[in-house]
Amino acid sequence: MTKFGILVFPGSNCDRDVAYVTRDILKQPTRMVWHQDTDISDLDVIIIPGGFSYGDYLRCGAIARFSPVMQQVMQHAQKGKFVIGICNGFQVLTEAKLLPGALVRNRDLHFICDRSPLKVERTDLPWTQAYTKGEIITLPIAHGEGRYHADAATLAEIEDNNQVVFRYEGENPNGSLNNIAAVCNYTGNVLGMMPHPERASDAMLGSSDGLKLFSGLLDKIGALV
Ligand SMILES: NC(=O)CC[C@H](N)C(=O)O
């Protein structure tokens, strides 16, 4: 069994959707982690879910990054353990500098709620090993500040290091540089993505393209019975 922890900030709104996937679909122990908690040593995988932490004041994720629990998340990541940030969670991870770059206001200055085709760029990571390289999947997107940005040197570095995990395929919905939808850290244990795999994890709700991200991870870390 793999124990999942899902961070909850004031304003998180995808926390229960993620728990539905890890606890109810994948049958793994899952606990909600309030942002003021400071002991997460029992957890194998931390999920920072989507939402509007602290009302998106200042910038999305800019306040959540200072929550007490984030010190522990940084230590968890430094030990090589798994952390995924989805949408607002991705924004929190870039604010915390656990991932390179930043998420800024969408090119067209509107909140976008849509479904977006994505190309799987890497399949050598535990997160994505259940996909095939170059596979096109479709996941929901829902964000106002999802345009991936990095300075030229950082962008070159992450491309050279193969840290882009998913790219928007076809139309670029938000103006992200190099069509970037997801990046990982150098070692691959920390992943951030704007699309929502948890909203595409139950075929009954229209798509299970996102489920392979969670089930692939479990498979890789030897927990799927
Ligand atoms: N779904 C989300 O997590 C949204 C993230 C953030 N509130 C934004 O609008 O960009």
TrEMBL record:
SMART domains: GATase_5. The active site is at 87 (nucleophile), 196, 198. Keywords: ATP-binding, Cytoplasm, Glutamine amidotransferase, Hydrolase, Ligase, Nucleotide-binding, Purine biosynthesis. The keyword Protein biosynthesis does not apply. Pfam families: GATase_5. It is found in: Cytoplasm. Transmembrane segments: none annotated. Its EC number is 6.3.5.3, 3.5.1.2. InterPro entries: Class_I_gatase-like, PRibForGlyAmidine_synth_PurQ. Pathway: Purine metabolism; IMP biosynthesis via de novo pathway; 5-amino-1-(5-phospho-D-ribosyl)imidazole from N(2)-formyl-N(1)-(5-phospho-D-ribosyl)glycinamide: step 1/2. It catalyses: L-glutamine + H2O = L-glutamate + NH4(+); N(2)-formyl-N(1)-(5-phospho-beta-D-ribosyl)glycinamide + L-glutamine + ATP + H2O = 2-formamido-N(1)-(5-O-phospho-beta-D-ribosyl)acetamidine + L-glutamate + ADP + phosphate + H(+). It comes from the Bacteria. Part of the phosphoribosylformylglycinamidine synthase complex involved in the purines biosynthetic pathway. Catalyzes the ATP-dependent conversion of formylglycinamide ribonucleotide (FGAR) and glutamine to yield formylglycinamidine ribonucleotide (FGAM) and glutamate. The FGAM synthase complex is composed of three subunits. PurQ produces an ammonia molecule by converting glutamine to glutamate. PurL transfers the ammonia molecule to FGAR to form FGAM in an ATP-dependent manner. Part of the FGAM synthase complex composed of 1 PurL, 1 PurQ and 2 PurS subunits. HAMAP family: PurQ. This is Phosphoribosylformylglycinamidine synthase subunit PurQ. It comes from Plectonema radiosum NIES-515.
